[in-house]
């Protein structure tokens, strides 16, 4: 790990409690012109081939982009209409997730709470503000990451997701991860860490280290959930250590945090 650190501002510390073009071979072009005893300019036929290649490459790129955007539309629609588990009966809104669809860093929590259910967005309210401060402490912002949850619908009384609910909802999160292809994941809280790492080790023993997401190998750093930190501010110092670890990991992965 690198020793380079992003320096958080005093305010954040206080808040925390502490289609590439494929070029034609130039030699080939030169030979063509020299053999004809003329200039090195391509003949009309060669120019036509180059144009055709460009059009074909552009078409492939556009098709790939179109498929990518369509996949996002499909998964958004499926989530908004999902009735796979009983939570659809009590939700006000599904909470799909927000942020950059090409983010290097994903933040994954457990499930929407009352505010999130009402607004259809993850991490709003006091926990959301604390999360914003945590991101700012490592030079990040909501716009640069993608934030999602293990569940897309609120469990009544903010209960922990049941294994059945988590299993039913998991394919949506997996598809988001496949589309985003993040370089690293910050798992917020025990539920997220247990589901991503497929372990039941207490969060206090998982945090402070880099793990790998089961099945994908994406580096995962577990830390405390912001809602937990609001209830137990003593944990903020450890959460801050986890953020510094994340900072080092991102730097090693070539991700700028400034
Ligand atoms: S929690 Fe997930 S699986 Fe259950 S209804 Fe909502 S979107 Fe569907």
Which terms summarize this structure?
six-stranded mixed beta sheet, Uracil-DNA Glycosylase, subunit E, 258 residues, globular, binds iron/sulfur cluster, alpha/beta
Explain what this protein looks like in three dimensions.
With 258 residues, the protein is an alpha/beta fold. It folds into two domains: 26-67; 95-252, Uracil-DNA glycosylase-like domain (Uracil-DNA Glycosylase, subunit E), CATH 3.40.470. Helix content is 48%, strand content 9%. The protein has ten helices and six strands; from the N terminus they run αααββααβαβααββαα. A hairpin with a 6-residue loop joins strand 5 and strand 6 (219-223). Helix 3 packs antiparallel against helix 6 (163-180). The longest helix has 37 residues, at 44-80. The model is unreliable at 1-6 and 19-42 (pLDDT under 50). It binds iron/sulfur cluster (SF4).
Q: Mean pLDDT across all residues, rounded?
A: 86
* Rg (CA only): 24 Å
Which residues sit in consecutive blocks of at least 5 with pLDDT less than 50? Answer: 1-6, 19-42
Q: Outline the biggest β-sheet.
A: 6 strands, mixed
Strand content: 5-15%
């Amino acid at each position: 790990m690198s020793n380079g650190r992003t320096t958080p501002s005093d305010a954040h510390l206080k808040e925390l409690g502490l289609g590439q073009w494929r070029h034609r071979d130039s030699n080939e072009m030169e030979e063509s012109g020299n053999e004809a005893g003329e200039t090195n300019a391509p003949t009309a036929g060669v120019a036509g081939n180059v144009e055709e290649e460009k059009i074909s490459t552009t078409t492939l790129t556009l098709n790939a982009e179109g498929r990518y955007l369509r996949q996002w539309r499909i998964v958004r629609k499926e989530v908004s209409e999902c009735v796979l588990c009983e939570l659809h009966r009590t939700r006000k809104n599904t909470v799909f997730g927000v942020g950059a669809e090409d983010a290097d860093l994903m933040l994954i929590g457990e499930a929407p709470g009352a505010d999130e259910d009402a607004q259809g967005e993850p991490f709003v309210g006091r926990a959301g503000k604390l999360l914003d401060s945590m991101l700012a402490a490592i030079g990040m912002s909501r716009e640069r990451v993608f934030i999602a949850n293990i569940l897309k619908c609120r469990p009544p009384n903010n209960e922990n997701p049941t294994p059945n609910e988590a299993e039913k909802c998991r394919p949506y999160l997996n598809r988001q991860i496949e589309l985003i292809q993040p370089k690293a994941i910050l798992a917020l809280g025990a539920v997220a860490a247990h589901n991503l790492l497929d372990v039941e080790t207490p969060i206090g023993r998982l945090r402070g280290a880099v793990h790998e997401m089961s099945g994908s190998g994406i580096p995962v750093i577990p830390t405390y959930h912001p809602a937990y930190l609001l209830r137990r501010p003593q944990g903020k110092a450890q959460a801050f250590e986890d953020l510094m670890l994340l900072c080092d990991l991102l730097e090693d992965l070539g991700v700028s945090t400034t």
